[in-house]
Amino acid sequence: MIELIGSVFILAGAIFLFSAGLGLLRMPDAYTRIQAGTKASTLGNMLVLIGLAFYHPSWTFRLILVIYFVLVTNPVSSHALSRAAWLIRTPMTSSTVTDALAAEDERAAAPKES
Fold this sequence. Notes:
Layout: H1 2-26, H2 30-55, H3 60-87, H4 100-109
Helix pairs in contact: 1-2, 2-3
């Protein structure tokens, strides 16, 4: 029964990882690709690691550490990639309505009133 639960977690993780890959192919610009890949791959990796914990209970502590590492590093790396793409002026899709960083950049560049 434990192996079945582990297999279900691994299968669910594989589905999320597949959707992350599909998101990389289907999304229109770099920013949405980064977002789609990060969210789905974070959850997919976590589910696969939880499934492995059911198969190998002695590895549970190490797998929890790896899950923590994934939870910390994936969003940070995604943010760094997105910021770097924005700084080199990677174009956004035409359906993008607002560019919050451009508005923030304009506010920072405006002269300060005393």
